[in-house]
């Protein structure tokens, strides 16, 4: 049994591989196939994750799992949201996205820095699966005034986790997976998936 993991994000892939290990199936990254990226033109995490899973299932002929995720900052009315990976523009990267977020949050008081990560993971048995398995979760935090930590990816250095009193990028990958939006959504997916 093989499942294609429909993501090109190395940070996500590492976390997802760890969380999916207990399924005892062969998890193959999408990069093992020579296929173009899906056009993510949905308006929600759930739409975009279905678009990515369906695209990968269609082009590989394998069951697929996709993740669409992002950061919603209350002071920014939910931005960057579904545009989290391209907040600083199409050619943006984690460093540019984080710099833009820090700038927009400059001098915002601590009480108004609340934010959460969202994750929607989807499993589709085949491209026409009429009932994808959809699992969503969120992770509450606050936007730090400066970057802290080296672990993780994306906005992890700016995401303060109150229960651990540190940034998400200061957590081990095991601890992040126990707490995070992705960890929680994939835990539910693993418990509900029927292969
Ligand atoms: P794929 O579509 O190939 O999976 P992507 O990076 O384009 O990769 P998304 O469109 O779902 O994926 O964007 C998610 C962005 O949200 C990601 O690039 C990070 O900037 C941010 N993000 C999501 N989960 C995160 C996490 O656990 N830690 C830090 N940042 C995260």
From TrEMBL:
Pfam families: Ham1p_like (PF01725). It catalyses: XTP + H2O = XMP + diphosphate + H(+); dITP + H2O = dIMP + diphosphate + H(+); ITP + H2O = IMP + diphosphate + H(+). Substrate binds at residues 7-12, 69, 153-156, 176, 181-182. InterPro entries: dITP/XTP_pyrophosphatase (IPR020922), ITPase-like_fam (IPR029001), RdgB/HAM1 (IPR002637). Keywords: Hydrolase, Magnesium, Metal-binding, Nucleotide metabolism, Nucleotide-binding. It is an enzyme of class 3 (hydrolase). One of its GO terms (molecular function) is XTP diphosphatase activity. One of its GO terms (cellular component) is cytosol. The active site is at 68 (proton acceptor). GO terms for biological process: nucleotide metabolic process; purine nucleoside triphosphate catabolic process. Its EC number is 3.6.1.66. Binds 1 Mg(2+) ion per subunit. Its cofactor is Mg(2+). Mg(2+) binds at residue 68. Belongs to the HAM1 NTPase family. Homodimer. Pyrophosphatase that catalyzes the hydrolysis of nucleoside triphosphates to their monophosphate derivatives, with a high preference for the non-canonical purine nucleotides XTP (xanthosine triphosphate), dITP (deoxyinosine triphosphate) and ITP. Seems to function as a house-cleaning enzyme that removes non-canonical purine nucleotides from the nucleotide pool, thus preventing their incorporation into DNA/RNA and avoiding chromosomal lesions. This is dITP/XTP pyrophosphatase. It comes from Pelagibaculum spongiae. The gene is rdgB.
């Amino acid at each position: 049994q093989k499942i294609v993991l429909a993501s090109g994000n190395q940070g996500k892939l590492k976390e997802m591989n760890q969380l999916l290990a207990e399924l005892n199936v062969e998890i193959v990254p999408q990069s093992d196939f020579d296929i173009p990226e899906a056009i993510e033109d949905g308006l929600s995490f759930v739409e975009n994750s279905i678009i990515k899973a369906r695209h990968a299932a269609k082009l590989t002929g394998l069951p697929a799992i996709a993740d669409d995720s992002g950061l919603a900052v209350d002071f920014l009315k939910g931005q960057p949201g579904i545009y989290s990976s391209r907040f600083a523009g199409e050619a943006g990267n984690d460093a540019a996205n984080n710099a833009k977020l820090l700038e927009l949050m400059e001098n915002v008081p601590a009480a108004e820095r609340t934010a959460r990560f969202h994750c929607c993971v989807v499993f589709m048995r085949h491209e026409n699966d009429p009932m994808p398995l959809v699992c969503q979760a969120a992770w509450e935090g606050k936007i730090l005034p400066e970057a802290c930590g080296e672990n993780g990816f994306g906005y992890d250095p700016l995401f303060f986790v109150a229960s651990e009193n540190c940034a998400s990028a200061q957590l081990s990958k095991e601890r992040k997976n126990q707490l995070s939006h992705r960890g929680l959504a994939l835990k539910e997916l693993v418990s509900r998936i029927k292969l």
